[in-house]
Amino acid sequence: MEGESELDMEQLLQKAGVLIEALPYIQRFHGKIIVVKYGGSAMIDDKLKKEVIQDVTLLKLVGFKPIIVHGGGKEISSWVDRLGMKSEFVNGLRVTDAPTMEIAEMVLNKVNKSLVQLVEELGVRAIGISGKDGGLISVKKKLSEGQDIGFVGEVEKVNPSIIFDLLENDFLPIICPVGMDENFETYNVNADDAACAIAKAVKAEKLAFLTDIEGVYRDPNDSSSLISELTLREANELLEGGTVGGGMLPKLNNCIDAILNGVSRVHILDGRIPHCLLLEIFTNKGIGTAIIGDQDMKFYNHEEK
Amino acid sequence: MEGESELDMEQLLQKAGVLIEALPYIQRFHGKIIVVKYGGSAMIDDKLKKEVIQDVTLLKLVGFKPIIVHGGGKEISSWVDRLGMKSEFVNGLRVTDAPTMEIAEMVLNKVNKSLVQLVEELGVRAIGISGKDGGLISVKKKLSEGQDIGFVGEVEKVNPSIIFDLLENDFLPIICPVGMDENFETYNVNADDAACAIAKAVKAEKLAFLTDIEGVYRDPNDSSSLISELTLREANELLEGGTVGGGMLPKLNNCIDAILNGVSRVHILDGRIPHCLLLEIFTNKGIGTAIIGDQDMKFYNHEEK
Amino acid sequence: MEGESELDMEQLLQKAGVLIEALPYIQRFHGKIIVVKYGGSAMIDDKLKKEVIQDVTLLKLVGFKPIIVHGGGKEISSWVDRLGMKSEFVNGLRVTDAPTMEIAEMVLNKVNKSLVQLVEELGVRAIGISGKDGGLISVKKKLSEGQDIGFVGEVEKVNPSIIFDLLENDFLPIICPVGMDENFETYNVNADDAACAIAKAVKAEKLAFLTDIEGVYRDPNDSSSLISELTLREANELLEGGTVGGGMLPKLNNCIDAILNGVSRVHILDGRIPHCLLLEIFTNKGIGTAIIGDQDMKFYNHEEK
Amino acid sequence: MEGESELDMEQLLQKAGVLIEALPYIQRFHGKIIVVKYGGSAMIDDKLKKEVIQDVTLLKLVGFKPIIVHGGGKEISSWVDRLGMKSEFVNGLRVTDAPTMEIAEMVLNKVNKSLVQLVEELGVRAIGISGKDGGLISVKKKLSEGQDIGFVGEVEKVNPSIIFDLLENDFLPIICPVGMDENFETYNVNADDAACAIAKAVKAEKLAFLTDIEGVYRDPNDSSSLISELTLREANELLEGGTVGGGMLPKLNNCIDAILNGVSRVHILDGRIPHCLLLEIFTNKGIGTAIIGDQDMKFYNHEEK
Amino acid sequence: MEGESELDMEQLLQKAGVLIEALPYIQRFHGKIIVVKYGGSAMIDDKLKKEVIQDVTLLKLVGFKPIIVHGGGKEISSWVDRLGMKSEFVNGLRVTDAPTMEIAEMVLNKVNKSLVQLVEELGVRAIGISGKDGGLISVKKKLSEGQDIGFVGEVEKVNPSIIFDLLENDFLPIICPVGMDENFETYNVNADDAACAIAKAVKAEKLAFLTDIEGVYRDPNDSSSLISELTLREANELLEGGTVGGGMLPKLNNCIDAILNGVSRVHILDGRIPHCLLLEIFTNKGIGTAIIGDQDMKFYNHEEK
Amino acid sequence: MEGESELDMEQLLQKAGVLIEALPYIQRFHGKIIVVKYGGSAMIDDKLKKEVIQDVTLLKLVGFKPIIVHGGGKEISSWVDRLGMKSEFVNGLRVTDAPTMEIAEMVLNKVNKSLVQLVEELGVRAIGISGKDGGLISVKKKLSEGQDIGFVGEVEKVNPSIIFDLLENDFLPIICPVGMDENFETYNVNADDAACAIAKAVKAEKLAFLTDIEGVYRDPNDSSSLISELTLREANELLEGGTVGGGMLPKLNNCIDAILNGVSRVHILDGRIPHCLLLEIFTNKGIGTAIIGDQDMKFYNHEEK
């Protein structure tokens, strides 16, 4: 029927429009490294999981160089419980003794290889490594207010040569946040910290945190105060204002640290929105909050107006 | 308002869907050469022109290797007229004497550089060459039913090294169909023939003709008999059936020739449809008629069902 | 004291002698790939473990290209028990249901990263991967006498490009025997089979199995009938003779398979002997049993007589 | 006959002498870029034209990296006339409106491809490009004493990457002086200015202008006052002296500009002398006037005395 | 004076003509390997020596890849005498005992480095090696009618990898004809044989022998019967005719051997003519006798008529 | 027998121990350049000679980049005598007139090629060059207290590109100390000076002098005062102390010069001890005296305690 076909054509043209709309973004990020901290709900919900992997794979295929850094928090807890191990806490942080560290590493590697599997399924070469491979992440013991809480590490140095080698060979690297200290002992590292340290070391263009919040609020109690864009200066002011609370504080510190070290734009994305990563990168509809460096503002001012 | 934002989100998700839908096609054609014969209305209408260039540029940016081969037919005629030169015809073909050849070459180069301009404007490196550069196209004189019709050439050999060099250096090559004979005289070449010869010489994955028709009809008098897909065998049968007429005959011969020489899929597209190239490649809604080689059928059978 | 110093000098000269004795072997295997199947006691005893890693690292440093393929058998069992999971057996083979496979993969990855750690500690770049990374190992379900025993895979194809990429970048690859089927499901693979399949795919010069036996016996009941060298023909005769029993049968089949596919020499080493790998390669005192291909005989005949 | 043969041998030895005499020059310019501004009579007279192309081709074959930048002045005028277009002049400069620019570009491209043809005929890979290809020449509108004279451009930036790519692939680049402004509009550029800007951007060793004069005169009215060599200081003094007139003034300014930007030696050659380019480079008989930078003086002092 | 200047210009144009005449030859041999057997008078007379070196250096500079293989015959004899050593002869061949071999090698290396010196003086990178370096020439003992005449070797194998490495690094290799047998004993090799064996191993385009004769005569007693060109067939007929005598016989055999193994053209040049090498290559006036392979005839037929 | 086999095993384990002990040293010097000045008794005694060559070859095979610089002193004298030439001395130095230089060069090249022979025999690619090849060593005439003593040169400049090219192509370069002055005249150079100058030019990690003494003594008259390690400061103090005498003085100056120019460690080894080179590098038992730069101390302090 005529009518149907006309409808079809209209839809097709809309499709073409979406693809054409992506042109400047594909161009802007061609060959650029984008570090994605993958965690939260997007890692638990199977549909969201598949969508994140589709997004990252698409980024790879159109010529960007994405890197996934993932956590494994909730699953670690569930295995610790399942094994009937006692959990001790200090200042709200789990004490990571040797047996706990062993479980944590096993779980993180399991998650790691399951992500490899999903990417390979989409036909892209993936490789799953930890911060131990190629001496990627060197750590020192992290104390919690002066107290030893076991094998919890603070990133001391990132040796990115393994990442560059893998990117050069066209792999999509998937990294779990485990490192070694100078005695080659294994430590757990906070995944946000690891992602930030890696983004800095590889001079990433973009660092995106998939979280379970909508973004940064000017007033945490007012859901209408969501901030869509923060300059470095504004981010600092917000921190000093003291209204940023809880889990957002270290994340915002990581954002600022990344920007100061050459990352052009850091995103706090709501990982509960399907394809949030794709939408953030390929449309000019901002999702979540972006913290932006100075040289990056030019491109967006130019493109987004 | 809630409602508005929900609408927004739905639109965004549709956008993401379109991009994700492109994934298998991006993967399939990554690093592959796609020759686009650019001509007809799509070359005259400024909006269509811009859209073709956007399409080709997008192909380049997502990792394909497009090559444009263009004609210039109508504009050549108009300049010949403007210069008050006489036109002589033999069997319906214009006799191309030396002064006409001079005009033709000038006009083709003008068109060539105007396409370079449009691609460069989109931020992609373009280079406009003719079949004389780097000895790309060698021709011999073409007779029309035994009669000398001047500097009209038949492609004898394509030396593709210049194209490989330019692709290697990340250029989008734009080629006008002019060649030289063994005495280094300049000849005009039919753009369809040139595109086909180049596609064969560079072992293109795809060859697409932008035309001013909807595609191939089983019965030229019945507009509902448009064929969306032809195997090599069917295309041959159609030819032998004798119903293929006029301008379609040499085009279909070119298609078959290309397939027999290693091109996986040849498209006769309706260049009057905006973004027909993009739609053909990135959606499973066929535009126009595709002639397909055997190994290509597998992919499409697998993907499109 | 004179005397002491003379003694010293004598010891020093002996040391020099050992190094010089290594010369022809270093030369022979320069740049050659050596696949080491690492398992058994050498994987449990900490001293032996350290020594194996020292050996492999030395091989790397003097210019060979060693690859470790490891198992994890006993540790998998212990974790299955620890988690209170039921074990079911069919024809003596453990049925690997999904939860068991999950545990197996976690344990194998744990072992994998602990080996990375040991190699990195010696200052050599290691990378731990599984057969899922880069699509290295493709499997199909293996039946045990027609019965489904779960996620136990038979190697269908090895795609060695990831290994070549890693060797090219000077990594020592450490591989755990896990693969995926065509639906991207995870399967456990016998480590001997994986080592053999990888050795064939990368055209290894040598394949060495670290085992818990002295080698192959002509008569399994007569410990003085240890065979130090078998030609391909002799190995086949031995198999046909029917005296080879138990665990040795598949191992010997793997050896023959590897030789037939271009590996020059396969070793069944006694992994309980410290530095058995080094001794086998760098001295002309054979350790265990060697199965040798025809072209390899020339070198050894020349060197060892 | 004896006598004849002796005569032959003497001629042969003279030939050998000429070739040997070329040795230090071949050595001096090996791998060096030489920009040739090609224009004037040498472009109109067919014999001279062929000789210039032979010269440039020889430079290419003995290991130099020549680049041709050509004009097309007289032919543009003749086509403008032929098309019956009105010519308007401001301060002696032709006003280049859009239709004129269109003609100019067509003619320049025609000349460009005819040069490609001649070089290809001699068996050397040539490629003809304009300043639009690869974004080679960026311009801004040039005003004539404050007045808009249309699409006449002043070089703002040369992006030489396309030239380096082509040289790397062993092409002889032939360039016509057309550029684009920031809105991707096409402009005509003075060929001398384009050659000078390109020579500076590619750090050419030599820049040679083929002209229709003998060289620079100390006194324009005294044909015996031809200067064969000018240092930078002397060239400046000459300019300040005010005796340099007409067309020589901008040319001399270009020479000085090139020298100041790293070109070692600029030549104003008499293009009416056959093989003037070859003679200038391969003999120590100066043709025309050379403006020389400081580091270049050493070589010539050493070689030419 | 007008007249003088006109004379000058005429001479200059003749110079240009000589250079232009060289064009097709430079093109033909670009990147091609040319082996020059250097010996005879051209090695003793200081002026001729300098001219040969100039010729070879020029070949290098215009893009060919010349290789010099030299002898040292007369100087070896003079040093043997000077050291008061007895000379013994068998069938007219000097018996080369160990002390004689020692002298021979010393003298050959002396000559070798003196040639390096001359080439370096002309500003070209030279390297002097013997057939011992990089295992270039492997020999076996050569018997003279069944009798042992000492360390006189017959070339068994040429391993050209050292030559390719040196050419790749842009060296002009200068080689003296000394080789080693399978026990790594040093042997003297006839320089003609060495040159021929090397030309075959490196697939040289041309092999030129500098000799002390005018060329090959049809009738050795008739100086007017000098042959300027021989096809392979004619050369064989000449050999079979039995009129070729003395020193020419092995030389002609070497020529035929080289042609049969892929060298396009072999020259027997009169090394007493200054610049004979240059004249042979760059002019169409043949010097001496050329033995030509079939595919080479085409070029020369085309060029020389 | 049991007992015998146990003894065997013990010996084998000792062997393995020696190899493992070499690990950190192999790692430390991987890819590093080590210049060995080869002279004295180790060059005359056939057994020592063979052992030095074995040592250097082993260094090459395990991944270091050794370079041999050799002298030829005693053999030159013996040939000068044999040829009945008069020797004249000035301040204890032989006057090197042209005929003596000719002999010296011949003898040095003879030694050079005999070393090539020994290395090739061990299956490693060697190439023997002099300082004339590739313009390696440029010299000026050296005066002895103001007096001209002939062709004795002082190193002015080392152009190491030939060495880098040869190392890149995996050759073991063997260099004899002959150079050319600006007029391309040949000069003899002291081998110690040549080795030191080369070590500096190639930024060697280590420079080792094989000598006929035990090392440096604090008190030359007290054989128990042998110094095993000297810092730069201590070496300077020793020099200033005035107790260093005779041949050691210039050697120590060379050592200090090398250290100051970036060589990490210089060794004065007792070449009369078999395999002294190997022992020095692969064990922590110091042989002779080491002069060490500051950054090198760290490694040895760490490794050797």
Overall average pLDDT of chain A:
89
Q: Under CATH, the topology of the largest domain in chain A is which?
A: Carbamate kinase
Order of helices and strands of chain A: HEHEHEEHEEEHEEEHEEEEHHEHEH
As laid out across the biggest beta sheet of chain A, the strand order is 5-8-2-1-11-15-16-14
Largest interface: A-B, 36 and 36 residues
The helix-and-strand class of chain A reads alpha/beta
Low-confidence stretches of chain A: 298-305
The appropriate CATH architecture of the largest domain in chain A is: 3-Layer(aba) Sandwich
Q: Largest sheet of chain A, if any?
A: 8 strands, mixed
- N-to-C span of chain A: 41 Å
- Kindly provide the name of the CATH class of the largest domain in chain A: Alpha Beta
CATH superfamily of the largest domain in chain A: Acetylglutamate kinase-like
Domain count of chain A, please report it: 2
Tell me the radius of gyration of chain A: 20 Å
Looking at how many chains there are and whether they match, the oligomeric state comes to homohexamer
Shape of chain A: globular
- Strand count of chain A: 16
Q: Provide a count of the helices of chain A.
A: 10
Written description of the protein model:
The structure is a homohexamer of 305-residue chains. Chain A has helices at 2-28, 46-61, 73-82, 98-121, 161-168, 191-201, 232-241, 248-260, 276-282, 294-304; strands spanning 33-38, 65-70, 89-90, 93-94, 126-130, 137-144, 147-158, 172-176, 178-180, 186-189, 206-211, 216-217, 226-227, 229-231, 265-270, 289-292. Chain A is of the alpha/beta class. Chain A has 2 domains: 30-204, Carbamate kinase (3-Layer(aba) Sandwich); 206-305, Carbamate kinase, CATH 3.40.1160. The first copy, chain A, has an 8-stranded mixed sheet, with helices on both faces. In chain A, strands 6-7-10-9 form a 4-stranded mixed sheet, covered by helices on one side. Chain A is globular. Mean pLDDT of chain A is 89; it is low at 298-305. The interface between A and B is large, with 36 and 36 residues.
